[in-house]
């Protein structure tokens, strides 16, 4: 079967209303607005309301992406939702989004877990599915990190926020997905164990007390990995596409920490005005970070037809990857 040229037709995002500022955090853990700003560039982040979760946020971002793409939901063949904070091991949150869009039984929906690189992974997989079949897919990143953060650990809880972003992809000459790659390598410097009660299993060593599981991170080690992953991703995607740093018009890097974005932009030799930054407003929203940033850059009219937009992310796993989009 001939391979269709696949493009991004539209993007959407959902950010919960509740804002948690650094000043608010000062009342929860022993930290300071100045410390957080200096080390991370984060000023505030969003916290999902009790009735919200990755599926409700993902559905809201998807509706907006479909509207912006001008695609009716019934033209979709796949929904892939990348997340690291599912409240259910099953059913997949993507199927709950499918249901919310009135598409029960009409397509295949599944979740994908690849740390904060999840959106790049989902985009890479979705592009290959629809390129063969000439169909449309929703690619979503949605995370509620606030529910897996240890709110007594100042070195991690200050970093994360909740949110969702989505894109619609399909046969198109607009937003052309020119090249992408994804990669992984085991790294236990950033992990989160599944919550389950070991005490009820007769096949596991007895625990005297149950312990909640939270995001565990060795910050300085993860920082070093992240900067290296951004540089490696840049080198590799530019080589794959046969273009140079000078050809990059916009750089969207996973919004983990301003210092990582700054290092990436310097390495790419991309001027600061071509670096998309919203980490100050939302913190690290994991799999949602790249599509939220892409959506905002499009809404602000920054990205123009013909621009080369580079999407780079990295995360727990470890995972990393990049996609080059010609708008
Ligand atoms: N407020 C005030 N002080 C804090 C703090 C906070 N929120 N968090 C840590 N500190 C303290 C530490 O206790 C330590 O104090 P000590 O020197 O007395 O022991 C000091 O600040 C330095 O800690 P360190 O962890 O070395 O700081 P850092 O400069 O590496 O910054 C991170 C910490 C987490 C901001 C940084 O390592 C980082 O961003 N790492 C990457 C995280 C990331 O991107 N994760 C997601 C990847 S997808």
Q: Which helices and strands occur, and which strands form pairs?
A:
Layout: E1 6-14, E2 18-21, H1 22-26, H2 33-40, E3 44-47, H3 54-69, E4 76-82, H4 93-100, E5 108-112, H5 118-133, E6 136-144, H6 154-157, E7 162-171, E8 176-187, E9 190-191, E10 216-217, H7 219-241, E11 250-253, H8 258-268, H9 279-282, H10 289-299, E12 308-315, E13 317-326
Parallel strand pairs: 4-5, 4-6, 11-12
Antiparallel strand pairs: 1-7, 2-3, 6-7, 8-13, 9-10, 12-13
The structure holds coenzyme A (COA).
Coenzyme A is lined by residues 31, 35-36, 39-40, 116, 154-155, 158, 217, 219-220, 222-223, 226, 256-257, 284, 315.
Features:
single chain, 327 residues, alpha/beta, Peroxisomal Thiolase, Chain A, domain 1, 2 domains, 5-stranded mixed β-sheet, 4-stranded mixed β-sheet, 10 helices, 13 strands, 26% strand, globular, binds coenzyme A
Write a structural description.
The protein has helices spanning 22-26, 33-40, 54-69, 93-100, 118-133, 154-157, 219-241, 258-268, 279-282, 289-299; strands at residues 6-14, 18-21, 44-47, 76-82, 108-112, 136-144, 162-171, 176-187, 190-191, 216-217, 250-253, 308-315, 317-326. The chain is of the alpha/beta class and 327 residues long. The protein has two domains: 6-174, Thiolase/Chalcone synthase (Peroxisomal Thiolase, Chain A, domain 1, 3-Layer(aba) Sandwich), CATH 3.40.47; 178-187 and 215-326, Thiolase/Chalcone synthase (Peroxisomal Thiolase, Chain A, domain 1, 3-Layer(aba) Sandwich), CATH 3.40.47. The strands form four sheets. A five-stranded mixed sheet has the order 1-7-6-4-5, with helices on both faces. The chain has a four-stranded mixed sheet with strand order 8-13-12-11, with helices on both faces. The protein has a two-stranded antiparallel ribbon with strand order 2-3. Strand 12 and strand 13 (317-326) form a beta hairpin. The longest helix is centred in the last third of the chain and has 23 residues, at 219-241. The chain is globular, with a radius of gyration of 19 Å. The two termini are 26 Å apart. The structure holds coenzyme A. Residues 31, 35-36, 39-40, 116, 154-155, 158, 217, 219-220, 222-223, 226, 256-257, 284, 315 line the site of coenzyme A. Coenzyme A binds next to helix 2, helix 6 and helix 7.
């Amino acid at each position: 079967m001939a391979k269709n040229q696949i493009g991004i037709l539209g993007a959407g995002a959902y950010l919960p209303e509740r804002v948690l500022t650094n000043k608010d955090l000062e009342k929860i853990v022993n930290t300071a607005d100045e410390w957080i700003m200096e080390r991370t560039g984060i000023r505030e982040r969003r916290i999902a309301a009790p009735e919200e979760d990755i599926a409700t946020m993902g559905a809201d971002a998807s509706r907006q992406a479909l509207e912006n793409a001008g695609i009716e939901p019934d033209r979709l063949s796949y929904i892939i939702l990348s997340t690291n904070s599912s409240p259910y091991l099953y059913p997949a949150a993507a199927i709950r989004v499918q249901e919310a869009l009135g598409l029960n039984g009409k397509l295949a929906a599944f979740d994908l877990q690849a740390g904060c690189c999840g959106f790049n992974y989902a985009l890479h997989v979705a592009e290959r599915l629809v390129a063969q079949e000439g169909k449309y897919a929703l690619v979503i990143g949605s995370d509620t990190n606030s529910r897996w953060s240890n709110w007594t650990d100042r070195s991690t809880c200050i970093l994360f926020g909740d949110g969702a972003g989505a894109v619609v992809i399909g046969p198109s000459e607009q937003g052309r997905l020119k090249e992408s790659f994804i990669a992984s390598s085991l790294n236990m410097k950033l992990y989160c164990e599944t919550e389950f009660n070991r005490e009820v299993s007769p096949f596991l060593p007895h625990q005297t007390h149950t312990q909640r599981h939270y995001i565990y991170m060795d910050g300085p080690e993860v920082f070093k990995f992240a900067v290296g992953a951004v540089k490696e991703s840049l080198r590799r995607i530019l080589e794959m596409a046969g273009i140079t740093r000078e050809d990059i018009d916009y750089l969207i890097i996973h919004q983990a920490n301003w210092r990582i974005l700054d290092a990436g932009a310097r390495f790419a030799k991309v001027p600061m005005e071509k670096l998309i930054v919203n980490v100050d407003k939302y913190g690290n929203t994991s799999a949602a970070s790249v599509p939220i940033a892409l959506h905002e850059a499009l809404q602000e009219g920054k990205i123009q037809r013909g621009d080369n937009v580079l999407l780079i992310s990295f995360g727990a796993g470890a995972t990393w990857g990049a996609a080059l989009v010609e708008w």
